[in-house]
């Protein structure tokens, strides 16, 4: 079990390093040649789609099998289930991470508001400006985290279904899985 996790973690780490290298090497040398923010966003989204299509989602699970051996129906079903289970756990972990960040930002803002209420009378105008600036920035971060969490909750089931469809269409599993549907 620990070996499987290490293999998956190593595979994910290698992919992240590969992606980071691509993103770093894609930076323009001359700032005047920089694309507009909208162009950057479009290029980034296209890049993410390209990486997603190139990503071999079964690789960490296929590594567990003896090389060159043909898959049995049972192994194909097990691989599909493990892949979907792993993906579901990653979706849950991402939601939990966003939720934890949201709660942390909210708690820090509440603490700062409590401090302000206790010290409001003795604050200098500069301190009050700093407080208002902090509140504004914190509210911005909280709204962004809330939007991210809502978007994740909206897209997670769609992503799960998309992966399930990809697995059924994958030539390594497809024919064996069709016998079970």
Describe, in plain words, how this protein is organized in 3D.
InterPro entries: DRC7/lobo, DRC7_C. With 181 residues, the chain is mainly alpha-helical. Helices cover 79% and strands 0% of the residues. α4 (73-119) packs antiparallel against α5. It is elongated, with a radius of gyration of 23 Å. Mean pLDDT is 80; it is low at 1-29.
Strand content: under 5%
Helical run tally: 6
Which regions are unreliable across 5 or more consecutive residues at pLDDT < 50? 1-29
Largest pleated sheet: none
Summarize the entry for a quick read.
The protein has 181 residues and is mainly alpha-helical. It contains 6 helices and no strands.
Question: What descriptive keywords fit this protein?
Answer:
disordered N terminus, 181 residues, single chain, Dynein regulatory complex subunit 7, mainly alpha, DRC7_C, DRC7/lobo
Blueprint (SSEs and pairs):
Blueprint (H helix, E strand, L loop, with lengths): L1 H24 L11 H18 L4 H4 L10 H47 L5 H45 L4 H5 L3
Helix pairs in contact: 4-5
């Amino acid at each position: 079990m620990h070996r499987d996790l290490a293999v998956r973690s190593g595979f994910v780490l290698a992919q992240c390093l590969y992606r980071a290298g691509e993103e770093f090497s894609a930076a323009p040398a001359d700032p005047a040649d920089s694309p507009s923010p909208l162009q950057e966003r479009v290029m980034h989204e296209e890049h993410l789609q390209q990486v997603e299509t190139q990503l071999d989602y079964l690789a960490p699970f296929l590594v567990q099998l003896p090389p060159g051996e043909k898959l049995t129906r049972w192994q194909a079903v097990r691989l599909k289930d493990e892949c979907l289970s792993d993906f579901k756990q990653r979706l849950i972990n991402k939601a939990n991470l966003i939720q934890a960040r949201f709660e942390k930002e909210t708690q820090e803002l509440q603490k700062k508001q409590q401090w302000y209420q206790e010290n409001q009378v003795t604050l200098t105008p500069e301190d009050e400006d700093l407080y208002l600036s902090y509140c504004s920035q914190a509210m911005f971060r909280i709204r962004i985290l809330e939007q991210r969490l809502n978007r994740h909750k909206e897209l997670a089931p769609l992503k799960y279904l998309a992966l399930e469809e990809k697995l059924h269409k994958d030539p390594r599993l497809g024919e064996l899985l069709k016998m079970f549907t």
